[in-house]
Write a structure and sequence with these properties.
Distance between the termini: 36 Å
GO biological process, one term: L-arginine biosynthetic process
CATH class of the largest domain: Alpha Beta
Main location: cytoplasm
GO molecular function: N-acetyl-gamma-glutamyl-phosphate reductase activity; NAD binding; NADP+ binding
CATH architecture of the largest domain: 2-Layer Sandwich
Catalytic activity: N-acetyl-L-glutamate 5-semialdehyde + phosphate + NADP(+) = N-acetyl-L-glutamyl 5-phosphate + NADPH + H(+)
CATH superfamily of the largest domain: Dihydrodipicolinate Reductase, domain 2
Number of domains: 2
Number of helices: 9
Subcellular location: Cytoplasm
Structural class: alpha/beta
Number of strands: 16
Largest sheet: 7 strands, parallel
Amino acid sequence: MKKIGIIGGAGYTAGELIRLLIHHPQIEIDFIYSTTNAGNAVGVVHQDLAYVDLAFTSDVNTKVDVVFLCLGHGNSGKFIEQYSFSSSTKIIDLSNEFRLKSDVTFKDRTFVYGLPEINKEEIKNAQNIANPGCFATAIQLALLPLASASLLSQDVHINAVTGATGAGVKPSATTHFGWRDNNFSHYKAFNHQHLGEIGESVVQLQEGFDSELHFIPQRGNFSRGIFATAYTNFEGTIEEAYALYEEFYKDSAFAKAVKAPLHLKQVVNTNYCFIHLEKHGNKLLITSVIDNLLKGASGQAVENMNLMFGWAQDTGLQLKASYF
């Protein structure tokens, strides 16, 4: 059994990690760190986990086998500097701090970008993982099969709607119920922070890509999930497009091209990404749906841990959607 620690244990992503890891056959939760909740039972904060005999702590065991950093953006590096984890401790960071190529090396640690669909072999040999962003995951999985065939020859237009949990557990003006309910808005148009990692992954598969990714992120009045649509020029047939996507994802544990139009309930509470294609004139419309807290965060983090230890990629992730 491998011992793991969770840093920032009171947030949404940490809550999802706990739910996954208490049922994982290969690990034992050693500690869940939260200074504001130290001494409290985990079930006091994550109330659906009232049956779990775990408590938050302000102590850190720097010799665990894996530590998951579920801290706010910009705080992971500070934490690593404060606590000298063993050289054998694997770090999986869920913030955006180490995702870009310019930021992958921090102190004596080098981070691998943890998108299994393109970096599986690197992840297997990695000591440290930069877990991808939620929007980035949905959008990359929509576009990378085209990039792999050097078919992104024109600008790509992207709209993606996320649920309220995408903004984190700390309330803000645009996440409380009175504002979010029966409402809809966009934010960070054309300059969302996930564009950098999306662009780097596209170039990884299609060297020389120099077109624009026009991304409009949007807030939806639901709790969890991301519904992303993207369109760009594509001269082939819809059959050729599906053949490309099915070939690209034939060995993927969780990314699947499907023929029927998509909706969020197909993937919420699962680690799947479903992708649907439509041809409209010379445009290919790609729809991609994920659960932002699972495939977009904690589920993908567990995927990465499984790969790092040589376990089956879906260990502890056999989750099923619920329509009702």
